[in-house]
Design a protein that fits this description.
562 residues; alpha/beta; TIM Barrel; Oligo-1,6-glucosidase, domain 2; Immunoglobulin-like; eight-stranded parallel sheet; six-stranded antiparallel sheet; binds alpha-D-glucopyranose; binds magnesium ion
Length: 562
């Protein structure tokens, strides 16, 4: 098995993790200073969101130079030191690769837009205004829309053509039908792989190719009456376009030139389409599985999805799970809102803990989002302070779309600015109001804290083959609110995970599985005595437990299950 299969990935949003130079923005030296913290989380790899030179219109997802470091974050020498320090602790480093678009400040684009006959003109997608009357800037080439709201075309008066962008207008899209573009991007990958980077998270990988004929996208018959224009069309000519798999195979081939490197693709697609991005074991090592972000917090629904996903995986396709990232509302906020019953959201009934138990016991690589280990929540940011271009461009959808709330500074301690930046500095986004109570230092000293619970989970996962590589078998206790499954592997102890997503307690009787007793290893509720022997027990609202079935070590034909 590879490190990216048995290991745990932890996403760092570098602007918000740790500032070392009092400018209010996190940086590489800040991350270096926190590597021991990360190591003690029992994670295996860090994925760092973009750190390249950028005008920061989309906070680094607008890359102006693929082969350097933004001075805000440090220097290439700082990066090399981060890599060496991480590797010396046994931590892998995954960079964010943003190949679909560049910044308008990338030299390719400044050349491209300089004249129609510039040799780099067709590195990007330029189109004439549509025929007709009216000023050229109003005659859009087609009906394509941006994910951030608005038309996907921006008119460039100097050369009289439009360029295409599916995100902010400062993020022009590269033309992968031009013979030089992919080779140039592959060289950018080699630049970092040669330095020792362990892999890439590839931004919007399924969008990289666009329809060669630039056809209008058809209406979406399922769109709600008040849907925004983007959702009123079906994205058949801008996403998953024919030829994309071949392009991804060529990217994968570059990773395969090196030992043990990996690529995880950012892909928001339904499961049947998602799994095609494994290819024949020759595309993404993993296409991100984001369904836990979209599904309601419901045991039956999630259990059905796990079965569906497990069933859809191609032979050799390794699963993965995600609860949140820098584009999604924090899981703690989401589940704390979704669970309604007396006593909820107390330490013993915190669904944020239950969500982490789910993520860290499923079969497949978990990707954790910074701060989730201490239960950080979305921080409400008023529109006047909003930084996120996606929200600023569609203020009417600001509540739904704003991504600042999940990007706020890490809460390290109770000092002014939470130890994220110097006390006199101004953090680039405001801190959570509750940071003096919810922070790493306070939780480190509290055996009942979320942080120590998270560390117990990751430690167990790391130690136990059944959890980090074993099979998945679902278990039905016949209770709608209870999601339960076995994790097993021949020759090792087996684990039974029982999660109560509902608001009432339930009796869990192991006899139902033909088991006399098991060992209670860990509960979301710090008050439950662990380890201890369990036979039948009451599982509280929002409680999850992990049980061990010892004595299964020598055989995979244990009585009972699976
Ligand atoms: C991805 C990133 C997101 C960014 C977008 C455009 O979805 O995760 O943050 O805005 O791509 O690069
Ligand atoms: Mg800084």
């Amino acid at each position: 098995m590879n490190w990216w299969q048995t290991g745990i990935i932890y996403q760092i949003y570098p602007r918000s993790f740790q500032d070392s130079d009092a400018d209010g923005v996190g940086d590489l030296n800040g991350v270096i200073g926190r590597l021991d913290y990360l190591k003690a989380l029992h994670i295996d790899a860090i994925w760092i969101s973009p750190i390249y030179p950028s005008p920061m219109h989309d906070f680094g997802y607008d890359v102006a130079d693929y082969c350097d470091i933004h001075p805000l974050f440090g220097t290439l020498a700082d990066f090399d030191r981060l890599l060496a320090e991480a590797h010396s602790r046994g931590l892998k480093v995954i960079l964010d690769l943003v190949p679909n678009h560049t910044s308008e400040e990338h030299s390719w684009f400044t050349e491209s837009r300089s004249s129609r006959d510039n040799p780099k003109r067709d590195y990007y997608l330029w189109r004439d205004p549509a025929p007709g009357d009216g000023p050229p800037e109003t005659r859009l080439p087609n009906n394509w829309q941006t994910h951030f709201g608005g038309d996907a075309w921006t008119y460039d008066a100097a050369t009289g053509q439009f360029y295409m962008h599916q995100f902010h207008r400062s993020q022009p899209e590269l033309n992968y039908r031009h013979p030089e573009v992919l080779p140039a991007m592959l060289d950018n990958m080699r630049f970092w792989l040669d330095r020792g980077v362990d892999g890439f998270r590839v931004d919007v990988i399924w969008l990289m190719l666009k329809d060669e004929q630039f056809r209008d996208e058809p209406a979406n018959p399922h769109a709600a009456a008040d849907a925004r224009p983007f959702d009123r069309i079906q994205h058949i000519y801008t996403a998953g376009v024919e030829g994309i798999h071949d392009l991804i195979r060529q990217m994968r081939a570059v990773l395969d030139e090196y030992d043990e490197r990996m690529m995880v693709g950012e892909i928001y697609l339904p499961v049947e389409q998602l799994v095609t991005y494994y290819g024949d074991g020759d595309e993404c090592h993993m296409p991100f599985n984001f369904q836990l972000i979209n599904l309601p917090w419901n045991a039956r629904v999630i259990g059905d999805y796990i079965r569906q996903y497990e069933g859809a995986l191609p032979t050799g396709g390794w699963p993965n799970w995600v609860l949140g990232n820098h584009d999604q509302h924090r899981i703690a906020t989401r589940v704390r809102k979704e669970t309604e019953f007396p006593g909820r959201n107390s330490v013993s009934g915190d669904p944020a803990r239950l969500a982490q138990m789910l993520l860290l016991t499923l079969r497949g690589t978990p990707t954790c989002y910074y701060g989730d280990e201490i239960g950080m929540e979305d921080v409400p940011i008023p529109l006047e302070q909003c930084m996120d271009p996606a929200a600023l461009q569609q203020p009417e959808l600001f509540e739904v779309w704003g991504r600042d709330p999940e990007r706020t500074p890490m809460q390290w301690d109770a000092s002014p600015n939470a130890g994220f930046t110097a006390p006199e500095a101004t953090p680039w986004l405001p801190l959570a109001a509750d940071y003096r109570a919810r922070n790493v230092a306070a939780q480190a000293d509290d055996p009942a804290s979320m942080l120590n619970f998270f560390r117990a989970l990751t430690e167990l996962r790391r130690a136990e083959p059944a959890l980090n590589r074993g099979d998945y078998h679902d278990v039905d206790f016949g209770i709608d609110d209870v999601l339960a499954y076995w994790r097993t592997t021949p020759g090792s102890d087996w684990y039974l995970v029982v999660l109560n997503l509902g608001g009432a307690s339930h009796l869990i009787d192991l006899a139902r599985l033909g088991i006399a007793e098991a060992q209670m290893m860990l509960s979301t509720d710090p008050a439950r005595v662990t380890p201890g022997i369990a036979t039948a027990f009451s599982l509280a609202a929002n409680e999850g437990v992990i049980l061990r079935l010892p004595g299964s070590s020598d055989t995979d034909t244990q009585d009972g299950y699976p």
